[in-house]
Amino acid sequence: MTRAVEETNRRLLRARDAMDLTYGRALDIPTLARIACVSEAHFIREFRATFGETPHRYLQRRRVERALYLLRCTDRSITDICFDVGFASLGTFSKTFHLIVGESPSEYRRRGEVITVPTCFAMAWTRPSSFGEDDRRMTG
Q1: Residue 12: exposed, middle, or buried by beta-carbon count in 10 A (0-12, 13-18, 19+)?
Q2: HSE-up of 55 (CA within 13 Å, CB side)?
Q3: Which segments of the chain does DSSP mark as H helices, in order?
Q4: Which fold has domain 60-140?
Q5: CA angle, residues 116, 117, 123, in degrees to nearest 5
Q6: Which of 42, 60, 62, 63 has the fewest CB atoms within 10 Å, i.e. the most exposed one?
Q7: 89 with 116: CB under 8 angstroms?
């Protein structure tokens, strides 16, 4: 791996870390591209090439991962959770949640508590996969 590739990866990791830390706030490509010190178009291309998904898809998945935890471990309303994890509308949250998880937030919550298993296993088992083929309409 060349020094240039290593530096690009470090910059992309900084942007991804910012997404992980601030998933609940509005994030946009210009801000993330500035963190990575590249143009917006280059940021999107390099992020996808490096991490296998667009920045938008990654952020949506991270938000849904957090929502999964909150739905199972709190009694907060679905609407509150929607806004807590960074979605601007309940409709978008429900649609994105269903695309990633395969069921609605209320159906997921209704299934009940997760059986206690080692954290590493639970994380691997419950981590949502990337969106399916239908997500192309939502990403840019």
Answers
A1: buried
A2: 27
A3: 3-21, 29-36, 40-51, 55-73, 78-84, 90-101, 105-110, 119-126
A4: Arc Repressor Mutant, subunit A (1.10.10)
A5: 110
A6: 42
A7: no
pTM of the predicted protein model = 0.76
C-alpha distances in angstroms, 24 versus 70, 74, 80? 13, 17, 12
Please report, in tens digits, the pLDDT of each residue of the chain (140 residues total): 799 889 889 999 999 999 999 988 888 999 999 999 999 999 999 999 999 999 999 999 999 999 999 999 999 999 999 999 999 999 999 999 999 999 999 999 998 765 666 777 666 766 666 555 444 444 44
- CA–CA separation, 78 and 84 (whole Å): 10
- Identify whether the C-beta of residue 29 lies closer than 8 Å to the C-beta of residue 44: yes
